[in-house]
Amino acid sequence: MNAKTQHTRRNILKSTLGIAGLAASGITSRVFAQQARGPGRPAGPGRPAAAALPGTQVVLLGTRAGPGVDLKRAETSTAIIVDGTPYLVDCGYGTVRNLTAGNINAQRIEKIVFTHLHNDHTTDVPALLSLQWTGGRTKPIDLYGPHGTERMVRAIVEYCKVDGEIRTVDEGRTARIEDLYKGHDVEATSKAVDVFKDERVSVTAVQNTHYPEHSLAQMPHRSIGVRFDSKTRSVVVSGDTNYSKNLVSLASGADVFICEIMDQATRDRWLEQVKQDPSVMQRASVARHVAETHSTPEDVGRMAAEAKVKLLVLNHLLTNAGTTSPAAPLIEGVRKFYSGEVILGEDLMMI
Ligand SMILES: [Zn+2]
Ligand SMILES: [Zn+2]
């Protein structure tokens, strides 16, 4: 073991210089995860299954930002496992595969919450639901999210029904797909509303700032941040968002705050594009969307500090460097405002 690996993760994360030094030497956040004792352990085969542990565990199933496929990070999804029962927040492409990689039984998922319905948060839902039915599931599953969730789930049921008709005739299956999957639209407001409550968790949500005012005025779609409170832990997932006062209130005092992040260079690049063509700000465009609707490291640090969260986990990494972004520029911005513990999220990290 060399001198660097003798650092505890906590010590490394406390020091911006430490992070910068490690990043410069090519040691990435995955090493922090592997060194971790406690929060930030990798989940997966050969390691304790989160579902077998008491208390509340978080497993990051997908940590990339935006629609796309790469081999390092899956699209966004987070599992929150309470006394062995998994709940899912978002379900982007790669979620189903990473549930298997993380030793989480997809058949046991009974409740899914969507922060919003951009496809990088929903693409694997048809795969998950159809696999649950062909896997023999007969108990209903509830899916919650902003306006449009109920309609999206109905459409997925229609998709599943074609396969269902064949297998019902050919394999003698009896469970009716339309009885299994129920979508529920959740209100998005500045005050926290109940999403659902059961014997293990209470889940609440607020509207965040992923959709700007001029877009909200033209559509019924909304975006939310969600909070899970169990007996042992409180976990908040920001969803995609710019700085949000509502989110700060929702995350107040949380044990774990999982927040999206976009590096400053990425925002600067999109703003530069806007500067060269100012008409972009007058119309809908990808450049404007990216520049306006995500959080820079400083935004994330401010929210974490104002909410006084105990642990900040950086997620949905949107950077010029793609999915292999060095940690230093992200952590440095956060550190201007937040001095607590920070983890750079990786797929299959258990927290
Ligand atoms: Zn997204
Ligand atoms: Zn989004």
Plain-language structure description:
The chain has 351 residues and is α/β, with parallel strands linked by helices. The chain has a single domain (30-350), classed as 4-Layer Sandwich (Metallo-beta-lactamase, Chain A). Helix content is 33%, strand content 21%. It has helices at residues 9-14, 16-24, 29-35, 95-101, 125-134, 149-171, 177-180, 213-216, 245-250, 264-276, 286-293, 297-307, 328-335, and strands at 41-42, 56-62, 77-82, 85-89, 111-113, 141-145, 181-185, 193-197, 202-207, 224-229, 234-237, 256-262, 311-318, 341-344, 349-350. Strands 8-9-10-11-12-13-14 form a 7-stranded mixed β-sheet. A 6-stranded mixed β-sheet has the order 2-3-4-5-6-7. Strand 5 (111-113), helix 5 (125-134) and strand 6 (141-145) form a beta-alpha-beta unit. Helix 2 (16-24) runs antiparallel to helix 13 (328-335) and helix 12 (297-307) packs across helix 13 (328-335). It is globular. The model is unreliable at 1-38 (pLDDT under 50). One zinc ion binds next to loops.
